[in-house]
Here is the input.
Amino acid sequence: MGNMELAGASFVVLLALIFLRIPIGLSMLVVGIGGTVMVTGSWVPILAQMKSLTYETFSSYSLSIVPLFLLMGQFATRSGMSRGLFRAAAALIGHKRGGIAMASVAGCAGFGAICGSSLATAATMAQVALPEMKRYGYNGALSTACLAAGGTLGILIPPSFVLVIYAILAEQNIAKLFAAAFVPGILAAIGYVITISLFMRFDPDAAQPAEKASPRERMEAMLDVWPVVLIFLLVVGGIYLGWFTPTEGAAVGTAGTGLVALARRQLGWSALGECILATAVSSGMIFFIVFGAGVFNSFLAFTQMPQMAAEWVGNAGLNPWLVMAGILLTYLVFGCVMDSVSMILLTVPIFFPIVMTLDFGLSPEDTAIWFGVLVLIVVEVGLITPPVGMNLFIINSMAPDVPLTETYKGVIFFVLSDLIRVVILTAFPAITLAVLWL
Amino acid sequence: MVSQARGLAPRLERRVGHVIEFITRLLALAGGASLVAITAVTCISVIGRELASVPIPAFEIFGPIQGDFELVELGCAFAIFSFLPWCQMRRGHVTVDIFVQALGPRVNAGLALIGNLLLTVCAALIAVKLGEGLADKRAYSETTFILQMPAWWGYALALVGAWVFVLASAYTVWRSLNEMLGDGERG
Here is the structure.
């Protein structure tokens, strides 16, 4: 069997294992080990590599951002800042048609600025927003779908640990990626608000208007969100301006959210324990995938498949935009069944060299950053595409009276808004990159 | 509440499960404490560095913590190794469930059994190899660049988590076996 055939076969076996419900990280690890043994014809190299590979992966300074951001998200969830954000947004726009749903999206956007995880953002905002939407007679499809979609802002708006993983794989500057992801993240929130207003136009009975807040109430609600603004500016601003490394920024953010939670008496010993245990589950899961993907990708590098694929695409004279469209479509399809971290770890080592051989009229660095933001968006769409979208499941489980099919129906509008945004951002790289050119 | 227990020594399995749950939780909390320590060290270092740049002579006593990133790396590795067993106990690893959902809870428990068996083999491989890595680092007396810490310290701390991971994985094999023979996954 030639190397290319071996690489091809390994993908078939890998997908078969994954679809048979073997954990994704484990599947990559097993296929990676098996493949390396076949391609090198011996157990010696892989076994020698294993002596230090786990420790080196788990002690990586840049990857240490991931558990820190996860802990920061846990603290932020505890701190009650989601309640403040939602109230401020509701005081401003709650009285409009569909206003509470719009306020939920705005609250998610604000929370996304201090939390890098979509599930946490969706779940914590749902806790405060779902009862309010129920009070004003919002129908189940709209209320659950807007929260599921709003949750994706947790990762789209920096800080974002998915972007950190892309940055490491593609060897790109994390600060620049964060900056570039900002405008598309805001566009996502605006897109969701427009979606809600269109939803209300088609189905005016989907919600009752809330009463208008007095100017004084608005002021008070707005002032309540200062810690969120401060932490966001400090962490993302500080990383961008080079005050500190991304890891230091993550530590500062973790301390900041932790202190806010502590000051609000929300972080006793048992709460701290719960935060840690939740962080432990998601960090363990992510790092095991990172490790498995590392072994699998080093096997692929042995077969030279990624370079050959990139050369082939480069020499075939294909239309670059068509190739990009094909890649993004692949993500959207896989996103229906797979999670974002696994998809990025599995595909970026193959797609990134391909994209870098294509000419979009951008500098190599701009291409890499633009592609990273696009990948981030399309993998996040996977969180809200039926049948398997983690955000849909988590929100639906919090609204027991809403059937999952209702949530599926409602979210289609938000997925459409995502798709339109992907097309726009793909067609006009300047929207993403303008921040870096300033 | 507890359904009729079947399988291989089901009552013993649950009791062992409680013990392992306790151990893995404790270790995960220790890993979390290390994460909190990393946060503190890094923040103190950042504050020290910023203060030192203030142009006042008295502020010269401030400064960053030397080699703070080496402590971050050490603490992070310990944290992640300590998180793995807990993640395994809580069924935290991501799987794609959709294609086998229709096969029912017992077949799914059977697939989980295969997964957990594979994982136990891999976890054992990781632990054994990490132990050899530790021996290498000791034999060559490698130290870190700035703090001159022996490189094997990190490996030694990590090894605790690596072996508990083997233990937890082995237990989950037993657990999913009994779930397969019983009513399917307990969730």
Q: What stands out?
A: The mean pLDDT of chain B is 92. The longest helix of chain B spans residues 10-52.
